[in-house]
Amino acid sequence: MKRSLYLLPCLALLFSSGALAEPGMFLCRSPVVANDFWTDLNQAAGAGVKLNMEIANGIAAKNGCPFVPSTNLKPIDFVAGQMAITDGKVKGWAAPQLYIMYVNAQ
User: Fold this and answer.
1) Contact, 63 vs 56, CB < 8 A?
2) 55: Cβ–Cβ under 8 A, 6 or more apart, which residues?
3) Contact 85, 91 (CB under 8 A)
4) What's the CA gap between 72 and 4, in Å, rounded?
5) Residues 61, 44, 17, 81: what is their CA dihedral angle, to the nearest 10 degrees?
6) Beta carbons within 8 Å of 76's beta carbon, 6+ residues apart
7) In this structure, what is the dihedral angle of CA atoms 4, 95, 66, 45, given to the nearest 10 degrees?
8) What is the pLDDT of residues 71-101, one digit of tens each?
9) Cβ atoms < 10 Å from Cβ of 72
10) Torsion angle, alpha carbons of 65, 51, 24, 30, to 10
11) What's the whole-model pTM score?
């Protein structure tokens, strides 16, 4: 939980207006991978890394979680603490905290 407190302000900057060229989210292929991605983001922020899109892209690439540009992403399922999210064309998994930041940035 303590690490999440470090991460939230850092990720909020990623989703702020102007930080992203287009709205969207990093979506992973499974709930397990989505959890690993969220954990890696937390560990980086907890270690004092100032997260930006370049760093988030690197962590996402390591986990195989591509950025899906879309203004229409919606949750459709919840498994193992992770959300299945789709825009009707692409489906993937992400931490609920990332989805909340995506929605709040729009």
Assistant:
1) no
2) 44, 49
3) yes
4) 26
5) 80
6) 84, 85, 86, 91
7) 0
8) 999 999 999 999 999 999 999 999 999 999 8
9) 9
10) 30
11) 0.83
